[in-house]
Every structure is written in C-alpha cells, then in structure tokens.
Design brief:
This protein has 7 helices and 4 strands. By secondary structure, it is α+β, with helices and mostly antiparallel strands. The protein binds FE2/S2 (inorganic) cluster (FES). The site of FE2/S2 (inorganic) cluster has 12 residues, from helix 5.
C-alpha cells in the first residue's frame, strides 16, 4: 500500500513575496492561487491562512474557491501525470481493466502519487480520441488501443 507523502516544507517568505505581487489587483484570489500552484506545484495547505489574511477573507472562503476548481491541487503531484480515460467509449472497450492494471503497476489509487513523487494517477471523462479507445495519457502523450499486454509493457518501460 502507498505510504503517505510527508508534508513538504513551504517557504513562507517566497509565498508572501508572491502575495505582495498581487496586492494591487482588485480580485486577485484566482490568479494568485494559480501563481502559487505554478511556483510550488500545488497549493500548500499552509498557504490558505496566509492568503486569507492577506486578502481579508475567511480561510474557508479561500478553501472553497480552491476546492471548486479541479485544476487546483492541494497535495503535491508527481513529475508525470498518468490519466486513464473513463469516458463511455473507453469504458465499453475495457477502460476499467486498464485502470485496474495501471493502479496495480504503480501501486497507487486514483488521486494518489507514488512515494518517489514520480507519478500521480488520475482519471478523465474523455480525452477526445474515442476512436482509439481505451486510452491512457502519460504526461502529454496519448496511448491508444490499450490492452492488458500494452499496459504491462508501457508500465515496465515507463522510465526508459
Ligand atoms: S471516451 Fe475515452 S477518449 Fe473519449
């Protein structure tokens, strides 16, 4: 089973410097959290009270905005994102099995990151290449017509 990812240290000076850059904007929360995510790779939980205080908001308001957007992450993510398609076309052509095999190979569940911080596993509704179903994506590369043998080969050679 996956080991929990240790809380990473967050450079609060760096965080405050970023917040200062946005202090003159009228509605800075969204661009600010995007910038923080770009800088740290995710939005560290320690950033939420600091952001709330700087923007004169409640921490729950900041948290609410962050959790509303799927593209904002509150946990560190792996260097490579593995996305398995769960759309209808992929589902009917064996997507569930593909997901199960990827989980087994990486040793993680959906939404989790490998302890070495190399891979994060996600699912997506459709990646727009249904004709190649079932599909998975590693980074920005699409792998179509997946089957158990191809998944096995791909996962064994993923670091090459
Ligand atoms: S359903 Fe998987 S690519 Fe469209």
């Amino acid at each position: 089973m996956i080991e929990p990812i240790a809380d990473t240290e967050v450079n609060l000076d760096q965080l405050k410097k970023i917040i200062d850059e946005y202090s003159k904007q009228k509605w800075p929360l969204i661009p600010l959290v995007q910038r923080i995510q770009n800088e740290f790779g995710y939005i560290p939980p320690q950033a939420i009270p600091v952001l709330a205080q700087a923007l004169k908001l409640f921490p729950s308001q900041v948290q609410g905005v962050i959790s509303f957007y799927e593209q904002l992450y509150t946990r560190p993510r792996g260097k490579k994102i593995v996305r398995v398609c769960r759309g209808t076309a992929c589902h009917v052509r064996g997507g569930k099995t593909i997901l199960k095999l990827v989980k087994q190979n990486l040793g993680i569940e959906e939404g989790e990151t490998t302890p070495d911080m190399e891979y994060t596993l996600e699912t997506v509704a459709c990646i727009g290449v249904c004709a190649l179903a079932p599909n998975l994506v590693i980074g920005d590369r699409v792998f179509g017509n997946m089957n158990p043998k191809k998944v096995d080969h791909l996962m064994k050679n993923r670091d090459k």
